Amino acid sequence: MAAAFSFLQHLLLITTLLSAATAHRPHRVATHNYKDALTKSIMFFEGQRSGKLPPNQRITWRKNSGLSDGAAMKVDLVGGYYDAGDNIKFGFPMAFTTTMLSWSVLEFGGLMKGELGNAKEAIRWATDYLLKATAQPDVIYVQVGDATKDHACWERPEDMDTPRTVLKIDRNTPGTEVAAETAAALASASLVFRKSDRTYSKLLLKRAIRVFEFADKYRGAYSNGLKRFVCPYYCSYSGYEDELLWGAAWLHKATRSPKYLNYIQRNGQSLGGGETDNTFGWDNKHAGARVLLSKAFLVQKLQSLHDYKGHADNFICSLIPGAPFSQSEYTPGGLLFKMDDSNMQYVTSASFLLVTYAKYLTQAKKVVNCGGSIVTPKRLRSIAKKQVDYLLGDNPLKMSYMVGYGSRYPRRIHHRGSSLPSISAHPAKIQCGAGFSIMHSEIPNPNILIGAVVGGPDEKDHFPDERSDYFQSEPATYINAPLVGALSYLAHSFGQL
Fold first, then answer.
1. What angle do CA 247, 300, 118 make, to 5 degrees?
2. Peptide bond into 232 cis (omega under 30)
3. Catalytic one of 36, 86, 150, 465
4. What residue stretches are annotated with the Glycoside hydrolase family domain (predicted)?
């Protein structure tokens, strides 16, 4: 009996040890190649580049464009990104894209391995442009191109002959929301380059401080002063209070100066927005600011920012399916659904905030209490993973909404450069209106815009893959930027990085 008993004990010990070893492995077998999706999500930004392209350009069907941008105002505004499938450079979404790429790197850059350099290059392509756009004190150039005239053409960026109208904000025509977002972009990027390029980092931070002062001192909505140019494309509907809080939060993080903490404490109430504001994107920064500021309380123990943990919890609770305070709708296939127009931007931004807040909660050994229902960091990560997995192909159509990922993905995206023959294939100029015959055709796009994430399916999981349907078929930089962080986390947690 004794021998048998010791054998059983021995067996039990081995089983326990094996279970413990398994528990500490990174994770289960991944359903997706998150590393491949991460590589592609960053590569997409190279397809959106404006200006003179570098020798290491990976999306090779794109060529130089917009080389005289800014000339109309005798300033150099060459570079930056086209926001989506058109040929306009809109400063407001470009700055938000930059902030979210920077936040992705700051939270998950340590996990990115070989992709970190590419992510930093994507940020720098934007910040080099934003430095040009903010070179003059109390002036920010916020748009290059006439959106109405640009949208009347379907032409490659390399061919564009529409007016490259330059728009600016200044003391007389303020634009607090775009100025404060630009400050956030420069401040967050300064943290990205702090160790690798101190001189550049200092330049970005110095400029961020100046731009934020301008944003705060000369208050006014750019959607008012420049309404006929920026609306309905990138009108701000959430006001500029969210950007002031967001900009101050990033400057506090970048400077550690009590000045910005005092600003947040003094103005936080008036800039805070609605308690149940649960949309985060290029226009509305309330949820992002709350999550960012909650870190200062949770991890850095700044007691004066205690309320932001509660605000962040409210946002998280609004996303949890079945939770007492849930306000979010999901498609039958399980996709978070906010609105018809480019819904995937809210999916990627919410996924990023879920994995980021889960990280902060884990560091602080805290959970979220949704009306008595306890939500753990693990649950937040699980919800984020489900959203990313849907995007990558776990959906009723079995379609990846990232171009070039998987075997089935959108082939007719609403994107001029992707849909028209490349310069290499068709060196002759394609005139303004000549491209519309292709735009309205069923022909698949000849140029694969690798990594582009489109607007996505409707509330019933339907996706027609029609080029003319810009609500569902158009990619945008601000869809991809938060996804970079979420994919970095997932690739690492499944042992792919």
1. 55
2. yes
3. 465
4. 34-487
Question: Tokens 């994770």 sit at which residue?
Answer: 27
As given in the structure block, the two tokens for residue 325 are: 């305070």
Predicted pLDDT at 327: 85
Helices 477-493 and 91-108, packing angle to 10 deg: 10
**Which of 468, 470, 472 has its CA nearest to residue 457?**
472
Domain spanning 51-272 has what CATH number? 1.50.10.10
Annotation says 389 is catalytic: no
Question: With a threshold of 0.90, does the pTM exceed it?
Answer: yes
Q: How much is the pLDDT for 275? A: 53
CB-count burial class (<10 Å; 0-12, 13-18, 19+) for 151: middle
Whose tokens are 């959108």? That residue is: 410
Whose structure tokens read 């949820």? 287
Catalytic residue (one of 46, 216, 474, 492)? 474
Residues of the chain with pLDDT under 70: 1-28, 273-277
Q: Where do the domains of the chain lie?
A: 51-272, 278-402+477-497
Q: By the 8 A CB rule, do 285 and 253 touch?
A: no
Residue 306 among the catalytic residues:
no
